[in-house]
Amino acid sequence: MMxxxxxxxxxxxxxxxxxxxxxxxxxxxxxxxxFLFKMMSFMQSRLGPMEAGPYGSMQLFxxxxxxxxxxxxxxxxxxHSIFRxxxxxxxxxxxxxxxxxxxxxxxxxxxxxxGVFYAxxxxxxxxxGILIAGWSSANKYSLLGxxxxxxxxxxxxxxxxxxxxxxxxxxxxxxxxxxxxxQNAGEIFGWNGLGNPYILTQFIGFAVFMVAVQAxxxxxxxxxxxxxSELVSGYMTEYSGFRFLIFFIAEFATAGVFALIASVLxxxxxxxPFSWFGWHGMGDVSNWMNIVGPLIMFTKMMGLVFLIMWxxxxxxxxxxxxxxRFAWKVLIPVxxxxxxxxxxxxxxx
Amino acid sequence: MLAEALVAQNIAFGIIATxxxxxxxxxxTSKNVVHxxxxxVCVLAGAAxxxxxxxxxxxxxxxxxxxxxxxxxxxLFGVMLTRARIGNESELNNxxxxxxxxxxxxxxxxxxxxxxxxxxxxxLPAPSKAIRIDTQSISDTIFTPYLLPxxxxxxxxxxxxxxxxxxxxxx
Lengths: 349, 171
Known about the structure:
The structure holds two protein chains of two kinds.
Chain A (H helix, E strand, L loop, with lengths): L1 H5 L2 H35 L15 H11 L10 H19 L16 H9 L1 H12 L3 H32 L4 H9 L13 H4 L1 H14 L11 H4 L9 H26 L22 H26 L5 H29 L1
Helix pairs in contact in A: 2-12, 2-13, 3-12, 4-5, 4-6, 4-12, 6-7, 7-10, 7-14, 10-12, 10-14, 12-13
Chain B lengths: L6 H23 L3 H21 L3 H26 L17 H20 L15 H9 L3 H22 L3
Membrane topology (chain A): Multi-pass membrane protein
Main location (chain A): membrane
Keywords (chain A): Membrane, Transmembrane, Transmembrane helix
């Protein structure tokens, strides 16, 4: 509240926009360097980029520079205006998504009453961008990739929504802040030393959510839409230079934002167990949590993205029919059972 | 007495409404199916924005989730899978397209009368009163007085799903 009182509205809005940029670009850059460049290299017994900066830490800036100065190539028969809009829609979906993630008691961009619901809704906008990117490229590989992506994203959106329902039932709210508070003020059979992170009670939901996130991000083993051995690069085939860069940033930024959302829903978000400092609710939380909260969130995000990337680098690609069957015949029934169990237990306890 | 004028809301309403009207016209005049579908996305997203302006957060988000995220994606998916070409197509219009005009006018009149008659000169309270159509009251309404229609609706949807499966299965 202290911050909110000392700045006029326009300055707050400006700060929020800048904060949003940081919250999208910083995780994206960190994820690409730490996981895509370094972790993958170490897993393959090589060093990865070493030349630009200490341990190659400036490599990313070099890459961005390279992409920015490339020629803007567009297929002659492409639908030019839509070809230009498509990557922007995908990136816009990422920015809309981060708007709802709380980073501290007062460090949030918007505090929607139905925050989780909002996140699930805007994350589905990116499908639109991917579909029209595939179509407008006037390339059969692109179109096939776009269609595969749409089919996959629709299929995995359902288990994702259903997995979240369990958390919403248990917390009794769809507001992200209150979900954080419910976890950190909670107790496990009367013991409140850890709060009650929902990864314990909602482990099935967490597992389903993370699998669905993996598929929504089209990370291997769910990378059928951009399967390079058969579709060149799927819906991104015809994109180069800064337009490809936008897709690239959106991919890893969305990975980061989904990890942030998962950490809010299942790992207690920005909070520490409230009993450590004798807090009882939102009103007692100290102001310094606005500084520590984002760091806690960042740590949890790195942990979850590590999981996503570990799986990405370890498993071979699913076939299209296996992928669809897994969503419809395994994940959706499992998450429905989870909802039923949660509802019953909620009434019992 | 006039409530405090909601200047920002009124300006935003005007802008969004203009975008929606232009979008609606482009849906029917565009020469390309995919372009028409994207203009429709504009109109539907505009409706969501309008809901937000009248504090109906849950309805607005549902609009995005259902129409932009699901219906339009399936629509585009279907169109691209079957016939969408790049560039203009000449045979998009049905021969009887002019029949749509009287239908549209009648619909407009019916809705205008219903809205004007229903709300008369009621006004939205100023934002300082912090009214919120909260999600809980929506669910209370759906699951208590409107439970039976809700069940009926779910049943209709279930029948549609089963019907689709029966039609799609070859064996």
